Amino acid sequence: METVRIFDTTLRDGEQSPGATLNLQEKLEIARQLEALGVDIIEAGFPISSPGDFEAVKAVASAITKSTVCGLSRCIPADIDRAGEAVKGAKYPRIHVFCATSKIHRDHKLRKGKEDIIRISVESIKQALQYTTDIEFSPEDASRTELEFLEEITQAAIEAGATTVNLPDTVGYATPKSYGEVFAHLIRKLPIIREKGIILSSHCHDDLGMAVANSLSAVENGARQVECTINGIGERAGNASLEEVVMALKVRQDHYKIGTRIDTTKICPTSRMVSTLTGLTVQRNKAIVGENAFAHEAGIHQDGVLKFRETYEIMDPASVGLAKSSLVLGKHSGRHAFKERVVQLGYNLTEEQCEKAFAKFKALADKKKEVFDEDIEALVDDQLELIHQLWQLAGMQVIAGSTAIPTATVSLQESDGQVIQDASIGDGPVDAIFSAIQRLTGVHVNLTDFRIRAISKGKEALGEVQIELEHSGRKIRGRGLSTDILEASALAYLAAINRMRSLNDRVKIINGTV
Ligand code: KIV
Ligand code: ZN
């Protein structure tokens, strides 16, 4: 069967979601998971945007061997060199250059005419060819670009050496019919597309909730690459969601008659990993990966599913990797069984990370009789985040209750091993903990979100606290995990502060110099 390429941009467009910043280790872990999922191309970042992003793209390029690794670049010589340097170590490197083409972008953003835009696009593609022959060109805001100009620039880009032309619906304005027609039109008008075997690609944003429908319409009209993200994360309302596009093509194969290389049984673990590491929670009723996607509440539905699953289920939950939560390990399980389970769940941990996760597993198994896959995933994801820690929680004592003044005494261990201690009162126990940490670290931030949930079943379940802090207009998230929710809160707060530091903000945020 013919296939459509899946181009995953979770690490680039997805990471542009406010508060979703990922560090290098997290990007690497997601990239490995995407490779195992079977995505054809991983857009690992925008190398010119920061030294951190450059390093992350470079690290992904050298770690990934099955998927193509792509770096984004504007049509600016320094950008292209940076993207080229970042991906050149990849087994299959790609550079993705883009230049806006719609009238509104030409007049107001670029302040350039059509000829200039064609010229810089062609020059950029030629420069990128010095690094790799796999070049993707995107006329940004293609869906609002005059068709005639789109033809002209597509022809020029292909003649210059682009092998994939991506037609972004940058602002989520297109409708399935109009977007599909753009593909059909270019294929009809430009014989060079067929002659050279050029891949046309869709890239849709979800501002009107039509990103997936638009992507599928593009496929029906000749697109052979779909750009998408896990959980549909991305700029503003997000991008087309990978799991929805892939499962629509699979479940409705009778209609689309085209497949993908995705191992759909890895969809749910990948979704959970991306949600945990980006801090962007998946809405309960989200198609395919939401908590309720396979839950049947109505009695009539439950009765129907029990009699014959297909009465109310168009997909087998197992086909997207939603295995029934099983009791996998307990307090007598050894290191070997634990490591094997971690690998089965799709993680590649270093020895050191695995040892630390195992120690936490043992501590959890002591408190909790039943340890579920969700618990192990949470412990491992937590481990991935425990990278550059400037401060670690060394101990904590909290006084709370209806008549007591909430008071927290917190001890932190600094990276040089020194332990510091302070206490604070607050409006409640969590507030008291956060202000004690602020006193100790000298980092003053605003708390903009606080969420708490149980990871698995039972009264001893692991509690997960997710918080979002704001500093100088920048949102940073943190996550903490413990069977004690006050400890989980302290860990989440510290994780966010440590993350700020790992994003090179330390000098600026400490002592309030910003
Ligand atoms: O939405 C968009 O236009 C983009 C381009 C950079 C491809 O993300
Ligand atoms: Zn985009």
Give an overview of the whole structure.
The chain is an alpha/beta fold. It folds into 3 domains: 5-278, Alpha-Beta Barrel (TIM Barrel); 296-384, no CATH class; 391-510, 2-Layer Sandwich (Double Stranded RNA Binding Domain). Helix content is 42%, strand content 20%. The chain has helices spanning 24-37, 51-63, 77-87, 103-110, 114-128, 147-160, 176-189, 191-195, 211-220, 242-251, 253-256, 267-278, 299-307, 335-344, 351-367, 373-385, 429-441, 485-509; strands at 5-8, 41-45, 68-74, 93-100, 135-140, 164-169, 199-204, 225-228, 327-329, 371-372, 391-399, 407-414, 419-425, 446-454, 463-471, 474-482. α6 (147-160) crosses α7 (176-189). The radius of gyration is 24 Å and the shape is globular. It starts with a strand and ends in a 5-residue tail after the last helix. The site of 3-methyl-2-oxobutanoic acid has 9 residues, from β5 and β6.
Fourth-level CATH superfamily of the largest domain: Aldolase class I
Number of strands: 16
Q: Report the radius of gyration as a whole number of Å.
A: 24 Å
Sheet with the most strands: spatial strand order = 1-2-3-4-5-6-7-8
Number of H/I helices: 18
Described by strand count, sense and barrel closure, the largest sheet is: 8 strands, parallel, barrel
The chain-level mean pLDDT equals 91
Instruction: Assign the CATH topology of the largest domain.
Output: TIM Barrel
Helix fraction? 40-55%
Q: How many angstroms does the end-to-end distance come to?
A: 57 Å
The gross shape turns out to be: globular
Q: Name every ligand kind in the structure.
A: 3-methyl-2-oxobutanoic acid, zinc ion
CATH hierarchy class name of the largest domain? Alpha Beta
Structural class: alpha/beta
Do you know the CATH architecture of the largest domain? Alpha-Beta Barrel
Low-confidence stretches: 504-514
Strand content: 15-25%
Number of domains: 3
